[in-house]
Amino acid sequence: MRAKVAVLVFPGTNSEIETWRICRDVGLDTHVVHWSQAASLPNYDAYVLPGGFAYEDRVRAGAIPAHDPMMDYVIEGAQSGKLVLGVCNGAQIVLEAGLVPGTGAVRKPTAAFTRNAAAHFVCKHVYLKLTIPPERCAITAALSPHALIPAWAAHGEGRLAATDEHLREITDGGHLAFVYAHADGSVDERAVPNGSALGCAGLTNREGNVLAIMPHPERDAWNYNHPDRRQTDNILAPSGGVMLFAAFAQALERL
Amino acid sequence: MSLRTIAIKLKIPDNAAYTALSALRRLGVEVARLERAEIWQLEDAGSERDFAARVERNETLFNQNKHELQVLDTDRPRAGEAWIEDLDAKDVPLRIAGVNRARRFVAWRLFSAGHTPADAAAVRAAVDQLLCNPAIERAITA
Questions:
Q1: How far apart (Å, rounded) are the C-alpha atoms in residues A211 and A197?
Q2: For this structure, is A88 an active site residue?
Q3: Which of B35, B58, B55 has the alpha carbon at shortest distance from B47?
Q4: Per-residue pLDDT tens digits for B86-104
Q5: B23 reaches A (C-beta below 8 A)
Q6: What is the signed CA dihedral for B1, B3, B4, B9, rounded to 10 degrees?
Q7: N or C: which end of chain A has fewer CB within 10 A?
Q8: Phi and psi (nearest 5°) for A57?
Q9: Interface ipTM
């Protein structure tokens, strides 16, 4: 039986369609679930929180939706081992809910994806490089070591910020799942579009069933939205961003 | 050089405050009304007499169609109030004649059912549960 995945929509979410499409195309039984349908969430095997501006980023990006009734079910699901993937604003929500890095209590965030160093919105093609052993996180387990995933960074508040103590917890605990990298896989400050601490593009929790990534691989899932495609490439063929969602689907098959 | 503190708040309905109020009630914080304002502490070399007029001329800070400006007689949060500041806040360059430095906070003021300022415990609960992420912000309370 195909795994059943909920793509959550809060008021202000805006990336649910491309997220639903990529989940569907990797073989998942995917449904868009609006905030008014929160009570249906226990029926799903996994949750994907897409990008947007949930609750218009009021108070702080991710702060209000982290306390939405939908998140009661997501937190409960995560604690019972269900997979949770947050992308962009979804990553901010997952972090505000305390699910990643997961070193504090629920809804007591120990870090934030906050205002970019340059203090303006960034829209830039980037690469995410896997920095943990793939099997450290269930969602990345099917990726190859040091996998490089193309994606689009599109955020004003994507810079990881935390105290030195909490940044140490992130590195020592193996929570730094992805960093920003160049197309050849090299890593330096120039690859980081937002001044993110540790060059962080994604975090996982202690148990490895929750992953939060700031850039959008679902927006570089097919050649037609990959900026470096060659003229001879089939524009409808998958590009690299699909890798992460295929790995997500394989993780659900194993559960 | 004088330190002057102003509050700029919406005179139209404040949807962000309403959303935060709903979230706080859901979290069990006892609050009947919530006000939000931008607090600016300005180091001013100009005269007190035309201070408000100089600030109101800065159109990135103040829009007379939707904002009201109050010059506060305190540089600390009032009863029922918490000021939230970014930990990595930098001096904001504001083009206001006479103003050299500016420090920004977001003020949240909680009121209880009797329209009196909420007690310190309610303010603390609101700060801890929603209004401040200590990884990136600090809260100052009355």
A1: 17
A2: yes
A3: B55
A4: 998 877 778 898 998 899 9
A5: yes
A6: 130
A7: N
A8: 60, 25
A9: 0.92
